[in-house]
Every structure is written in C-alpha cells, then in structure tokens.
Amino acid sequence: MIEEIDGQIQLSIDSFEKALEHLVFELNKIRAGKASPAMVNGLMVEYYGSPTPLSQVANVSTPDARTISIQPWEKKMLASIEKAIFEANMGITPMNDGEVVRLVIPPMSEERRVTMVKQSKSAGEESKIAIRSQRHKVIDFVKKKVKEGVAEDTGKKKEEEIQKIVDTYIQKIEKILDAKEKEIMTV
User: Fold this and answer.
1) Domains of the chain with CATH codes
2) CA distances from 138 to 47, 134, 164 (A)
3) How confident is the model at residue 27 (pLDDT cuts 50, 70, 90)?
4) Contact, 81 vs 94, CB < 8 A?
5) Label partner for 89 (CA 20 to 30 A): which of 2, 28, 99, 143?
6) Are 148 and 11 in contact (CB under 8 A)?
7) How many CB atoms neighbour CB 15 within 10 A?
C-alpha cells in the first residue's frame, strides 16, 4: 500500500513539473519590452486550409532588441501571417514589405509594465492553484489508504512529505515570477 502512495506522489511531482513548464511557456508570451521569438510561439496560421504553427511555415528571428522578423518559406503566406497576428490581438501592428513581416515592439509605458506584471502574477497564481489542487488529490488518496489499513503515523509522514514537495514548487514559482517582474520592470 505504501508503494501505491509513493506512486501517487510521483504522479503528483510529474503534474507539478507540468504546471511549472506551463507557467514558463505562458510567461514567455508576456511582452517584457524587448523582442523575443517566444512572443509568437503558439500562433496558428492558416496554411492550405488548416491551422498550422507559425514556426512550421516561417523562420522567426529577432534582428535587434525591438524587432521580430518573420520570413515565410512561401511568399503567399505573408497575408495569412499578418491575419494571424491581428487575430491574436497582440497589440502590435505587423509591417509587410513583400518579403518579410516585421513586428516592431514599442517601448512600454510604466502603466503597461505594471499591467504586464499583474498578468504574469495571475499566470503564477494559476500554476499555484494547479499544484494545490493536485496536493489535495494526493492527500485524499493517502487518507483513503489510512482508512484501508495503512498506519496513521505513516500517513502523516507521507502528508508532510507531500507538503514539503509542494512548498518547494511554490518557491520555484515565486523565483520565476520575481525574475519575470524584474525583466518587465527593467527599462
């Protein structure tokens, strides 16, 4: 029975890792005043009638700190890429010169920076909620096993172990959020 509990704890750790990865993915999309190809990750472009990730139809690069350059492998994709950027509501107007779509990242105002920090903290809170939800599932599983015959002190030790793991992941999230806040607030 203890092996089952350990298996559940391991599954939870995997879920915690996924929550952390998702947070990093979401924070990469948040604009910090400088251009990053990650800002257009997840952008879907209409390609021969089916939605396709931008990275599969174009080369995305950052020639300088304020510009994202998107060079499609087929020129006829320029209009589809522009349309996808407009539909994504990124707050950036694409510039098409017939060869390349450029996104010029405007400098952010103090008010916009504060909004971005709030947005990143919100994403962090979602990750914390996911971790806490998983913690509750595991602790309920442990309590169920205690009712089925596992020693109570073993159950308590497992609950404490789970809480320590959760605390570690919450601290990791805080560090990631602090780093993102510094990145956003740096002018």
Assistant:
1) 2-29+109-185 (1.10.132.20), 37-104 (3.30.1360.40)
2) 43, 6, 13
3) confident
4) yes
5) 99
6) no
7) 18
Q: What is the pLDDT of residues 155-168, one digit of tens each?
A: 899 999 999 999 99
Q: Residue for token digits 């020639």?
A: 63
H helix or E strand, kind and range, residue 154: helix 152-185
Yes or no: say if 71 and 87 are a contact pair by the CB < 8 Å rule: no
Q: What is the pLDDT of residues 32-79, one digit of tens each?
A: 667 778 788 778 898 888 888 988 899 999 888 888 899 999 888 888
Who contacts 74 (Cβ-Cβ below 8 Å, separation ≥6)?
A: 57
Q: Report H helices in 63-151.
A: 78-87, 110-147
